């Protein structure tokens, strides 16, 4: 009698269904978490992580809510982006 084949995943790799996530899937999930963190930082800048605030500052050119948030805290004049 033989034992059934058992699949062992590497530690630290989250499962995507029944298989480990690929590197591109993990990176995509990280980008989505970063975007969500930056969006959640709008209006709650005092409690937001630095990474989210820096991402928000990087989006100032494209986003009116991000520009309003950064301008309200004087970030644009400090970074030279207000001109």
UniProtKB/TrEMBL annotation:
Region (Disordered): 1-29
Protein name as annotated: Uncharacterized protein
Record organism: Candidatus Accumulibacter affinis
């Amino acid at each position: 009698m033989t034992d059934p084949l058992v699949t062992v995943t590497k530690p630290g790799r989250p499962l995507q269904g029944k298989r480990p996530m690929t590197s591109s899937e993990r990176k995509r999930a990280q980008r989505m978490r970063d975007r969500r963190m930056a969006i959640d930082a709008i209006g709650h800048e005092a409690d937001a992580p630095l990474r989210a605030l820096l991402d928000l500052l990087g989006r100032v050119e494209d986003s009116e809510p991000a520009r309003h948030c950064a301008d309200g805290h004087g970030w644009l004049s400090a970074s030279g982006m207000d001109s």
